[in-house]
Amino acid sequence: MAYKVYLKKNEEKRIVAGHSWVYANEVGRIENKDKNGSLAEVYSQDGRYIGKGYINHASKILVRIFIRGNETDDEEFYIKRIKEANDYRIKLGYGNCYRMVFAEADNLPALIVDRYNDVLVLQCLSLGIDMRKKLICDCLVKLFSPKGIYERSDVSVRKKEGLPEIKQVLYGEVPDYQEICENGIKMLVDIKNGQKTGYFLDQKENRFAIRKYCKGEVLDCFCNSGGFSLNAATVADSVTACDISELALKNVRDNAELNGFKNLTTICGDVFEVLRAFKKQKRQFNTVILDPPAFCKTADEVKDAYRGYKDINLNAMKIIKSGGFLVTCSCSHYMTSALFEKMLIEASRESGRIVRSVEVKSQAPDHPALLCAEETQYLKFFVLQVI
After folding, report:
1. For position 1, what pLDDT does the model report?
2. End-to-end CA distance of the chain
3. In angstroms, what CA-CA distances link 206 with 55, 200, 218, 316?
């Protein structure tokens, strides 16, 4: 018999508004008994039905609600939800590479599906979704007939669900590198070993937007496989791509060669140290790009992350030529827009430079954010001009 989860008094307000997470400490009582990972019904304290979602007693997020009516989680249901998510992207003009399913924002909590041409990458972030990945793969095959489906569930957040990290082929054939076309640029995506699901699709529009700011000499820090570097190389005199990973830099060089770019070089090193070295050498650039990995993945890490963000932004401002640009990002939702902007104001003041804000953007439209769930609004993208 399905679990019936009853919330404490007034704990339903956030969830009724559309948030999917039911925390264990918000629950008053649980009735009936079923398997962990099964579909559980959630009710307010006074017995009003709220919705259904997968339960996991090992997680602080006890239930992730994704059904608000009387549906059940069968193949027909998943085909309908996934198709709706994909149709939204197609209407926006996406076709070659995009995030097909964005978890809570597409009412499929803990499920990520990315498309890289004819290969799909799946990420399962909860017990309930993990238990149904074969069903989900079958739906993806029926809907899209991909060449292959690869699982990139090698993320630490799975430990909170009592799950191991895993990478594997789920269907068909999956190459080590998959060629895509983004903003008119060819890219080889490292499906099996690249960051996250192989590539940061959430910056697609932002990568194109930097072209108008990348005349002259450009420094791209935390360049990963070169998304920003290659877009900059379409207009810049020279681009220096910096990352601590030699594998990432090999990908940059391979992608530059694929597109015939001759104006791109790479530096392997710690960005914090590289920026200090350039400052000491009095080396300056027309544009500096900072797109670091998340410096904080929990609320407890925000103070240290703030210092880290301030350090790189302060030193970047000091090596930008007068009239040049700083493109700076944060992908941690714990580093809120207000906090990130406060850090930039402090960094500009301490740099001794006059800095003005030129453009502010967020994640790409294939990564929509729910207004009722701040966790889904995570990317900050600022373009600043250093006077």
Report:
1. 82
2. 67
3. 37, 11, 16, 19
329 counts as catalytic: no
For range 318-330, the mean pLDDT: 98
pLDDT beyond 90 at 167: yes
Residue range 351-358: average pLDDT?
97
Contact call for residues 288 and 219 (beta carbons, < 8 A) = yes
Mean pLDDT of the 101-108 span: 97
Residue 176 CA: distances (Å) to CA of 148, 208, 253, 294, 378: 12, 26, 17, 25, 29
Nearest to 247 by CA among 174, 303, 177: 177
Q: How far apart are CA 97 and CA 73, in angstroms?
A: 27
What is the signed CA dihedral for 87, 90, 94, 97, rounded to 10 degrees?
Answer: 50
In 3-state terms, what secondary structure has residue 279? helix
Q: Check 181, 242, 331, 372 and give the catalytic one.
A: 331
Asked if residues 319 and 284 have their Cβ atoms less than 8 Å apart, the reply is yes
89: its two tokens: 């992207």
Instruction: Determine the Cα–Cα distance for residues 202 and 179; give it in Å rounded to an integer.
Output: 18
Residues 288, 213 contacting (CB under 8 angstroms): no
The angle at the Cα of 190, spanning 188 to 195, to the nearest 5 degrees, equals 125
Q: What is the pTM of this model?
A: 0.94
